[in-house]
């Protein structure tokens, strides 16, 4: 593809790995070290300048953050020439949207949904660290905690767009809580929760589960594919698991109840009533408290009937999505290792490994 020269450093461009509204992302190799990186190439257009400056400002502010602990892509450097601005990042494996495509949009078991659209959530290395993710693309991010007016014509991908953005209301960081709730529901279902074809249709879909916003009437339309009358109906969507034993099914049911409870606090019309990011991190579904209490209570009864349960103890305070919470399925632990379980004669941790089967409908691709 070419070579980028930055002072004494050279980057060889290998292939284009993605394209977006403001540019493209290429895989590159740093000649001095041989390191493979991702290079975001942003064309210098009049209306792009503000977006590029804002993203650079945010990336510089995030440089003091532990990117592994915070699940944020590691930013390496930036440079520019007369035509483009280049942002260099660590290379990650694939985004959630590509992962869904490779798996024919099969629904994920709830235990994997602890991870602001699927395109901006990257899997670091799925073979070594299943479902360990990092966030990328901060071009539309805001540093302010409260924004009074929507200045940009386009904020958030429509399927994941918060009600306050759709209705032109003041918004804050809770718009990302809404988006994450939509992503969680989509990963469980295998199709978008609110697949509106335009903003009016998007509001109609949201009304179908949350009711009317502040008494405003929205006329019904004919297209009602994949519409739920309440978020509680998510729990009625049954996901068939490979080797779905009674214990696994019950554990999945416990997880599902916790996920639906969390989604109901994330998906609210009024952002003031929506759960905060910090409170969401402490929710039993994320902290695993619900899994530990419900699963142990229900399985304790099963165990007394001669059905011993081998399950992985979860360290206090651990959350799904961290490298320590995911084990390499190819690694065989010692026979006496207490942190491993062995259902169906093969090593697998109930909390971090599994597969889904079935034939859900293919989702509608998101668009502006």
Automatic annotation (TrEMBL):
ATP binds at residue 40. Keywords: ATP-binding, Kinase, Nucleotide-binding, Serine/threonine-protein kinase, Transferase. Residues 11-286 form the Protein kinase domain. Residues 299-339 are annotated as: Disordered. PROSITE patterns: PROTEIN_KINASE_ATP, PROTEIN_KINASE_DOM. One of its GO terms (cellular component) is cytoplasm. GO terms for molecular function: ATP binding; protein serine/threonine kinase activity; protein tyrosine kinase activity. Residues 319-330 have a biased composition (Polar residues). Pfam families: Pkinase. This is Protein kinase domain-containing protein.
């Amino acid at each position: 593809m070419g070579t980028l020269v930055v002072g004494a450093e050279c980057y060889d461009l290998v292939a284009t790995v993605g394209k977006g509204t403001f540019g493209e992302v290429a895989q590159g190799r740093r000649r001095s070290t041989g390191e493979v990186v991702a290079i975001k190439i942003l064309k210098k257009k009049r209306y792009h300048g503000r977006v590029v400056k804002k993203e650079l400002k945010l990336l510089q502010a995030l440089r003091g953050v532990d990117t592994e602990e915070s699940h944020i892509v590691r930013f390496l450097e930036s440079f520019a020439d007369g035509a483009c601005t280049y942002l260099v990042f660590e290379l990650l494996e694939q985004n959630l949207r590509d992962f869904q495509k490779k798996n024919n949009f099969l629904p994920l078991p709830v235990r994997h949904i602890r991870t602001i659209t699927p395109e901006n959530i990257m899997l670091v290395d799925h073979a070594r660290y299943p479902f360990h993710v990092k966030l990328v693309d901060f071009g539309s991010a805001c540093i302010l905690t409260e924004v009074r007016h929507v200045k940009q014509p386009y904020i958030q991908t429509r399927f994941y767009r918060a009600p306050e953005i759709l209705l032109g209301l003041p918004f804050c960081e809770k718009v990302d809580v809404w988006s994450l709730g939509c992503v969680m529901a989509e990963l469980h279902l295998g199709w978008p929760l609110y697949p509106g074809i335009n903003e009016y249709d998007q509001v109609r879909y949201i009304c179908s589960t949350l009711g009317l916003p502040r008494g405003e009437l929205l006329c019904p339309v004919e297209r009602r594919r994949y519409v739920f009358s309440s978020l509680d109906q998510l729990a009625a969507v049954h996901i068939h698991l490979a080797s779905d034993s009674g214990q696994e099914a019950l554990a999945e049911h416990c997880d599902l109840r916790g996920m639906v409870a969390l989604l109901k606090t994330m998906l609210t019309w009024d952002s003031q009533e929506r759960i905060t990011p910090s409170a969401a991190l402490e929710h039993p579904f994320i902290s695993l408290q619900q899994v530990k209490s419900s699963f142990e209570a229900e399985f304790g009864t099963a165990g007394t009937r001669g059905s011993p349960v081998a399950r992985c103890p979860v360290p206090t305070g651990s959350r799904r999505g961290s490298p320590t919470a995911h084990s390499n399925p190819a690694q065989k632990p010692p026979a006496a290792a207490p942190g491993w379980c062995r259902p169906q004669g093969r090593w697998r941790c109930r909390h971090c490994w599994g597969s889904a089967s079935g034939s859900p409908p293919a989702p509608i691709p998101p668009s502006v």
